[in-house]
Design brief:
2 domains; mainly alpha; single chain; about 5% strand; 5 helices; 2 strands
C-alpha cells in the first residue's frame, strides 16, 4: 500500500506534538541548564518539522497531479503474498498468546517452520533450520544475555 506523504506528515506532526506535550511534566534538575526533557524535546521538534514538510509536499503533489491518499500495491491481489502476511501476523499473535504455555523453543520452531513453508522452503530443510535457529537464539538470549525466556511444556528439561 502506498500512502501519500501528507498522511505520514500528519502522523509525524501528531506524534511530535504528543511528545512535546508529554515532556512538559518531566522534572527539572536544580542547577542544571538541561533536564531529562531536552533530548526527547529536540527529537519531537524534529518530528514536527519533518511532519510539516511532508504534509506540505504531499498536499501539493495531491493538488497538482491528483495523487490518491493511498493505493494498494500489486501484492495485495496475490493469494500467496496475502497468505504470507496472514502467517506473519498469526505468528506474532501465537508468540504473544502462546509462548508462556508452549515455551520459547516450541513456539519459535513452529513460527519459523510456518514462515519457511509460506516461503516455499522444503519441509525437511525448514524444520532443520527452524530447530537450529531456535536453539541458537535461545542460547544467545537465555545463557549469554540472561533473558528469562519461558520454558512452557519443556519445564522439566530446563537447564
Amino acid at each position: 500500500m502506498k500512502l501519500n506523504d501528507a498522511v505520514f506528515g500528519a502522523l509525524f506532526l501528531a506524534l511530535g506534538a504528543v511528545v512535546l506535550f508529554s515532556i512538559q511534566g518531566f522534572p527539572k534538575i536544580p542547577g542544571q541548564p538541561v533536564g531529562p526533557a531536552l533530548f526527547p524535546g529536540i527529537i519531537a521538534a524534529g518530528l514536527c518539522v519533518a511532519g510539516v514538510v511532508l504534509l506540505a509536499q504531499g498536499w501539493r503533489r495531491r493538488q497538482s497531479s491528483g495523487e490518491p491518499w493511498f493505493e494498494w500495491d500489486e501484492w495485495v491481489r496475490s493469494p500467496r503474498h496475502v497468505a504470507a502476511l496472514a502467517v506473519l501476523l498469526g505468528s506474532v499473535l501465537l508468540y504473544i498468546f502462546g509462548v508462556n504455555a508452549l515455551g520459547f523453543l516450541p513456539t519459535a520452531t513452529i513460527i519459523l517452520v510456518a514462515l519457511f513453508k509460506v516461503l516455499r522452503v522444503p519441509t525437511g530443510r525448514a524444520l532443520l533450520i527452524a530447530v537450529v535457529a531456535a536453539l541458537v537464539v535461545h542460547f544467545a538470549f537465555y545463557k549469554l544475555l540472561r533473558v528469562p525466556l519461558p520454558w512452557g511444556v519443556l519445564t522439566p528439561l530446563a537447564w
